[in-house]
């Protein structure tokens, strides 16, 4: 039997998605090779100021058996020289297969990802910030990917493990016209507002989202709606719209900036609860929903829907994306499910790595 060529994974980031990603990739390596022909090994896991070189240390780190003291310290930053010791050990990109994976949450990795695409290294990213917030970055990445015929996959920036970007791209590639996308893209806000729709007090709904791992330790990060905003911008850009963060007609959830969650609790919590109650009429559910239309209109804000509609059937933390197209007419294409959370997001990133590697075989 012919031995599959090795794809060396370079992973940027080792947080709540990065750690389970390493474990999933190595734990399922034999199955992946058997079913897809992709033989995958870790070349490196890169943190902000240290690096773990080689498959063995990556595995032990994922199993919590390697302390960060064992990692090689390096100068802080995510510049191109991060790759030098990796290339020295495993070979240059023209002779070695690599996939560069970004599971950080910083704009700092953006230039490195563009450099990698230009060198012919496939890029997989779950990092929304360069795509949504760095002017021109998304367009540069797509152009570099096309010019070098190199995969650039960013499925997990919007739907986590759900096939949102691939559905959108497939519809457009096969000649359909996207008229409008309506989406509940934030798992954390789905969990909070879904619990509130079901009768939980707002503070209890927030606490439940935190307990289940959908909300950040500081829930104001979620309530600010920045995550949902970035996802709607990425959807609009994928549609081909020249949308930036500032172009979105956003209705904020919070009535003001709060220095911390303690400052929000009390009057801030009560005001938001009253606003949500007023928005939710009898027989309705209310969610924080984004939409992007072919005419360039992009919005994000509270919307109410009939309890008897598909929106009334959503479980707390579930996402939904409805694609209205010319070909499908009055019935939109629907992608729904729980796509967020560390394990599900990591599994979605792993699927993107496999697809990027298959393009190299």
TrEMBL record:
It comes from the Bacteria. It is an enzyme of class 1 (oxidoreductase). Signal peptide: none annotated. Pfam families: Homoserine_dh (PF00742). SUPFAM superfamilies: Glyceraldehyde-3-phosphate dehydrogenase-like, C-terminal domain, NAD(P)-binding Rossmann-fold domains. The keyword Ribonucleoprotein does not apply. Pathway: Amino-acid biosynthesis; L-threonine biosynthesis; L-threonine from L-aspartate: step 3/5; Amino-acid biosynthesis; L-methionine biosynthesis via de novo pathway; L-homoserine from L-aspartate: step 3/3. Keywords: Amino-acid biosynthesis, Methionine biosynthesis, NADP, Oxidoreductase, Threonine biosynthesis. GO terms for biological process: methionine biosynthetic process; threonine biosynthetic process. InterPro entries: Bifunc_Aspkin/hSer_DH, HDH_cat, HDH_CS, NAD(P)-bd_dom_sf. Residues 163-354 form the Homoserine dehydrogenase catalytic domain. It catalyses: L-homoserine + NADP(+) = L-aspartate 4-semialdehyde + NADPH + H(+). Its EC number is 1.1.1.3. One of its GO terms (molecular function) is homoserine dehydrogenase activity. PANTHER family: HOMOSERINE DEHYDROGENASE (PTHR43070:SF3), PTHR43070. Belongs to the homoserine dehydrogenase family. This is Homoserine dehydrogenase.
